[in-house]
Write a structure and sequence with these properties.
By secondary structure, this protein is mainly alpha-helical.
Length: about 150
Amino acid sequence: EHESDDDSYEVLDLTEYARRHHWWNRVFGRNSGPIVEKYSVATQIVMGGVTGWCAGFLFQKVGKLAATAVGGGFLLLQIASHSGYVQVDWKRVEKDVNKAKKQLKKRANKAAPEINTLIEESTEFVKQNIVVSSGFVGGFLLGLAS
């Protein structure tokens, strides 16, 4: 049976839904509480360590790529400037960088309440799941080193 076009539909506000449903509820289930209740300590450390290692390894690779791109771009700019292809007004660059720093400081001092809420929720999650969190940190550091 087909419903008529006159039927009304409920509109779901996804932003409100996302505020009410934390990401860990989607991963671990509603009212999951600490992971300690679900898995052994060894399993938690292994899970945290493996995910931390993967994150650290990716962070390392992406960081190297970003550093290479920025450094290579700066090197090419210097070569082009030295060869006479490009004239760079370094005083203007310095002025613009200082202006951007001031704007960033102003914005950082006026941190949005959502950021503070996210930090508080993350801190609470880490406190409730300290074993997995410590495994993640250890794995992350190993991933950076590999």
